[in-house]
Every structure is written in C-alpha cells, then in structure tokens.
Structure prediction request, 404 residues.
Amino acid sequence: MHIPFALPLIDQPVIDEVMDCLTNTGWLTSGPKVRALEAEVAALTGAPALCVNSWTSGAMLMLRWFGIGPGDEVIVPAYTYSATALCAMNIGARVVMVDVGADFCIDPDAVRRAITPRTKAIIPVDLGGWPCDYDALMAVAGEPAAKALFRPAGERQEKLGRVLVLADAAHSIGASCKGRPCGQLADATVFSMHSVKNVTTGEGGAVCLHLPEPFDMAAELQFLRYFALNGQTKSAFEKNQAGGWRYDIVAQGLKVNMPDICAAIGLAQIRRYQAELLPERKAIFEQYNRAFGAFGWAILPPYDDGRRVSSAHLYPLRLRGFSEQQRDGLIQFLSERGVGANVHYIPMPMLSLFRGLGYRMADYPVSYGLYVNELSLPIYNGLTEEMVGVVVETVEQAVEQEAR
Ligand SMILES: *Cc1c(COP(=O)(O)O)cnc(C)c1O
Prediction:
C-alpha cells in the first residue's frame, strides 16, 4: 500500500465549484468566488478576512501596511518554515530568532528578552495547528517595559501603540483558544491555503484582522483590499460593471490578490470544513494518539489541553531518546514500505541561508531537541482508518528495527 505524506482534497464538490467558475461566472481573477471565500473565512474565524495569493505575500502585505521595513526588527521562532523569516527579510527588516518551548511554540519569555527599540513585530507560529500562548504574547507586547522601548514604524503602528503581533496561522485554520477561533487571537492573522494545508486553493492565503480600539476594522479592511491590488481602488471585476471604469491609485501597494479560479477550490472545501473535513482530520489525530499512547518511546504532539485546541494540521510525533540519525533511518524504513513521512521543521539556523547570515543553532537548544527526534506522519482528508493503521504498524516495525 502506498500512503503519500500529503494529498490535496480534489473531490466532486471541488470539481463542480471550479466548473461553475469556468462555465457560469466566466470570471478568472478576483471576483465573486473570492468574495464568497472571504465570507466563509470570516464566518469561521469571526474576523474580517481578505484573500491573498499566498501566506508569504499576505505576511509581507501586513508588515508593509504597518510601515515596517529597513532598520526594523521582527521576532520569529527558530523552529518554523523559512517563509516566517523571509516575509520580513524581503521587506528589508532584520529577523531576530528566538527559541521555542517544548510544545513547539515561540517562548514568550524569550520574546520579552529579544525586544529592543527596533522591534516592530512578533510573528508567532501555530505549529502543526497548535495555537501559541497568545494571552502571554499579547501581555508581553503590552507590558510597560516593552511599551517604554517602543518606537512606531508609522502612523498605523502609532495608533496601535505597541509591537504588532502577527500570527503565522499557516497551519491553524479552525484551531481555537478558550473557545475563541484562531483569527481573533492576535492583531492580525495570516492563513495559508497552499496545496498541503487544511483548506487549499492550490496557492493562496487569507488575512484576518483583529485590531483593538480605535481601529475601524471595516475601513482598514477596505484599505487593505486596495493595498493588495497595487493600491488600486477598483478591482477588474468592479471596473467591468457598467460605468465603473474610473479608478484611483491611493497607495504604493503590492499585487497579491487571489484569483477566482483558485478561490473556487477552497470555497468547496471550507463550506464543509467545520462539520466534516476538520472532524475527519481530528479523528486521524486521535487514532494516532490512541495507538502511540501505548508506547513509552512515543511523545504525543500537543492537541487539546482544555484551553487550546489544535486544527490537527500535522501529526508531529516525537521519538523519546532517538538521535537524528536514528530518526532519519526510520523515515528511510517507512519510505521503503510506501509510507510517506516528513520532518517539521529543520530549524532555520541549520539552513545555509541563515547560517551564512550568522544565526547559530547552539543559540536554540529547545528547537534542536525537538528537531532531532521529530517525525511527521500522514494526516489529511481521504486517509482511511485502515491506512492510518498501516502507518502505525509500519512505525512500530521501524522503531523495533532501530532499537535492535
Ligand atoms: C506553508 C507555510 C508558510 C507559507 O505559506 P505559503 O502560502 O506557501 O506562502 C508559512 N509558514 C508556515 C509555518 C507554513 O507551514
């Protein structure tokens, strides 16, 4: 049996929605499908939403929108996918990496120690769909000591009055903390709709706003809509309406809008997400937990602590006492038997680009400890109970073989 690590959900409802875009609306770029997807994201998160063409461009958009750029510092965890850092580097800001805690999430105390007068944003990552401790992070950003150091990057940040907390929620659509959905846990939240994510548009993402008083969220969202379209006050769709040709360019924006043809794919998924697709993912996560919970060598990933609830994006199992080499051997064993596995993540300081910039792995001991014995197992809609059973059995065999 071949069990790939990840597969996007392309079933009849997805095909029907894409066909509707092609044959009925006849509109390919941002239009009715994008608006409908935004409405679904807003309904799911309880926060106003704007769709963009990737998480990375959404994060760049938000940093730029807050006036962040050269000379500014952005704090990110060392343990994440590189886009978390690259979005800041690509707008000219300097990335300050800090270590994570045992639950894979950025350590709020490490964030506190890293804040300087140059710090303009913190990008916590909800790793595998497990929300960070936003209560603690928002408290750190609002502490008198942090506020005393704070220098705003621009007018909008002056209004915020503190460091921006921008959630990397690439994995965590549908996750929550104390019953509040991800999207309302930070000042702004960016979701990814890349092909391997819980809800996909092929490539894409969505930004949700949750700004405190005195921000007018409707006005901010309207401006952000222009800002994601070259600063243009009308989309091609709006210009296509009778008499709607005249437009203005009101800001030096980016061009990161989502096409309707992509939105159609995500729309067909997100409509079923809460009632069907997310519970299916959780059932897989729980099946793994039940199976691996019986083994002393298994460290189960964070899932539900009564306060935070994961969106079960990854199943990041850890193997107690395993070395990096043994873990790699396990992945090889699985791959030879047709079971896809992965590692989330190689900490950024181990990658050439970041090593070359002077980041040192020795400064992030917790991240390193998580990395060496982490093993991500398949988890996606369409993975059957039987397939999960095969994955569990194969991992068991691999561990026995390694232990010999
Ligand atoms: C996938 C991912 C991103 C980047 O998402 P894109 O939509 O591909 O830009 C960022 N952060 C994390 C943690 C991710 O897994």
About this structure: Residues 274-403 form a domain with the Aspartate Aminotransferase, domain 1 fold (CATH 3.90.1150.10). The longest strand covers residues 73-77.
